[in-house]
Amino acid sequence: MDIEKIKIKIRESFDAPTSSEDNGRISYSQFSKFVKCPKSWELAYLKNLRTKDPSIHTCFGTSFHETMQEYLTLYLEKSDSHLDYDFPSKLREYMLENYSKDIDNHEHFTTPEELHEFWEDGVAIFEEFRNHKDVYFDPNRYSLLGIEAPIFMRAVNAYDVNMLSFLDIVLYDKLMDLIKIVDIKTSTSGWNKYMREDSLKQSQLVLYKYFFSQHYDVPLEKIDAEFLICKRKLDYGDSRISSFAPPISGDFLNEVNKNLYQFITHCFGNDGSFNLNSNYYAVSGKNNKHCKFCEFKDREDLCPKKERLKEYPN
Question: Across the chain, which distance is largest between two alpha carbons, in Å?
Answer without folding.
Answer: 61
